[in-house]
Amino acid sequence: MPHLEISDLITVTDPHSGARLPVHRAEVVEQLNACGNRRAARIVAALPAGPDGVLDPLAVDRTMISVHTELQRLSQELRIGDRLVHLLAPLLAAVRAGAADPGPLRVVDIGCGLGYLLRWLAATGALGPDVELVGADLDAALVGEADRLARAERLACRFVHGNAFDLPEAATVYISTGVLHHFPADALADFFHAQAASPALAFCHYDIAVHRLAPIGAWVFHRARMRHPLGRHDGAASARRAHGDATLLRAATVPGMRPLLYEPRTLANPFCTTLRPVIGVRPHLEAPLRQALGRASRRLVGPEQFAATGRDRLAGAVR
Ligand SMILES: C[S@@+](CC[C@H](N)C(=O)[O-])C[C@H]1O[C@@H](n2cnc3c(N)ncnc32)[C@H](O)[C@@H]1O
User: Fold this and answer.
1) Where are the alpha helices (DSSP H) in the chain?
2) Is residue 147 within 6 Å of ligand 1 at its C-beta?
3) 188 CB under 6 A from ligand 1?
4) 225, 71 Cβ separation under 8 angstroms
């Protein structure tokens, strides 16, 4: 049974124009029933639709904002900001060290949703004043709310409605959280290719680490901390859809980028590692990144280490 997330089915946008496309409630209900997911079908059937059967876009937007607002708790509890800074600060240090005049550095969050991560980075100033923070999302309602929240707190970050790869200014580093599992495995290569083909120097994408405990952990968290049935459903489904380390590393192996995993499953305690990143750096940045990471660089694994070493050898390498 494919693990579908309701949010992907009820918000459909043109990936180029960002225009909202009409979604027929009955079609989504039928699709979910055909997959045997009757609970999800009931959740969608309860959403309001117009006389033509098209889901009410305002009601869908309100639901999405409310679910993502609850979801921010997950980012807070998993300390996603600290985790990203742990890798991004050394990476940006390596970029600054390697360029005569690096100029302003730009971090672009692909699929930023409500922009929690960028707003946290702006509020803490953790990456330094020379780093511009830009969030992009195809969902106009989510990114509009991100913008409203950032303005309310006068935070130095900005949010754009549209495709992150169509921004007028190039990213120095692309980041994302909780986005990769929304793509089918065969679409991941295009996602990484787009970044390698851009002037960006690196990418760092956090997503759910695959482990047999992950679906149970996700279910417990979303049951305990989220109220909306859609959020509870999608939270549990997302852990079942997550891509494994090998799939991500293979997809991120694109020309011009050195693919790396930080704390792959073989090196991680499954009770502690809920999200882990797949990273790509221009090859000349790997050595300075490792140097800036210091001891932690032993947790950064390239494809050859990943393929050639078994669980025990990798685990031994970090003891
Ligand atoms: C689950 S949401 C992301 C949540 C958010 N990062 C967070 O941590 O709360 C995934 C989002 O990715 C967006 N998305 C996917 N591909 C995109 C692209 N190329 N450019 C901009 N947004 C994209 C979708 O519109 C969707 O809102």
Assistant:
1) 6-10, 25-34, 38-45, 57-77, 80-98, 116-124, 140-152, 185-196, 214-225, 229-241, 245-251, 286-293, 303-308, 311-318
2) no
3) no
4) no
Most informative mutation of 137, 163, 167 for ligand 1 (most atoms within 8 A of CB): 137
pLDDT tens digits for range 191-234: 999 999 999 999 999 999 887 776 777 777 777 778 899 988 99
Measure the CA–CA gap between 244 and 84, rounded to whole angstroms. 20
The reported pLDDT for the residue numbered 319 is 35
Among residues 248, 117, 124, the alpha carbon closest in space to that of 173 is found at 117
Judge: domain 65-318, CATH 3.30.565.10: no
Q: What pTM value is reported for the model? A: 0.92
What are the residue ranges spanned by the domains of the chain? 6-60, 65-318
Contact 245, 301 (CB under 8 A): no
Q: In this structure, which amino acid lies at residue 290?
A: R
- Chain centroid to CA 266: 21
pLDDT digit string (tens) for 12-51?
Answer: 999 888 899 999 999 999 999 999 999 999 999 999 999 9
**Tokens matching residue 215:** 């679906």
Helices first, then strands: H and E counts in the chain: 14, 10
Ligand 1 touching residue 286 (CB < 6 A): no
Average pLDDT, the chain: 90
- Per-residue pLDDT at 316 exceeds 50: no
Q: How many angstroms separate the Cα of 293 from the Cα of each of 76, 80, 316?
A: 24, 18, 19
User: How many Å apart are CA 209 and CA 229, to the nearest integer?
Assistant: 23
Who's near 189: CB < 8 A, 6+ residues apart? 251, 254
In short, whether 141's Cβ falls inside 6 Å of ligand 1 is: no
